[in-house]
Design a protein that fits this description.
single chain; about 100 residues; mainly alpha; 3 helices; disordered C terminus
């Protein structure tokens, strides 16, 4: 079964990452050319763990990245839409303007 990381690369039509470099000699368990796994990316960049850390023996390099709730931003966006609709209605325009293609990503 492909990993989410492999799926990402496949969707972008790119080859998955491979480990390279002389520093691999200091990281037991990796050889030049080995595929980069999702866990190896998630450990240091998501959890602050050594890239080969496992659940049984986690080796912490630093603090895990903090995650924050997006609740305030969502409430703000809803309020902005509400006020724009009010202003449009007060100006005699349709409350909900159509899509603006130039602003879509």
């Amino acid at each position: 079964m492909p990993s989410p990381l492999a799926d990402y690369y496949a969707a972008k039509s790119e080859a998955p990452g491979r480990w390279i470099g002389s520093g691999l000699g200091d990281i037991g368990g990796l050889e030049p050319g080995d595929l980069v796994t999702a866990r190896q990316m998630h450990n240091p960049f998501g959890q602050g763990l050594h890239l080969l850390s496992d659940d049984e023996k986690p080796f912490r390099l630093g603090a895990a990245y903090r995650t924050y709730s997006n609740e305030r931003a969502a409430k703000f966006a809803v309020e902005v839409v509400r006020r724009i609709e009010q202003a449009n209605a007060a100006a005699g325009r349709p409350a909900k303007a159509g899509r603006i293609p130039d602003l879509e990503t």
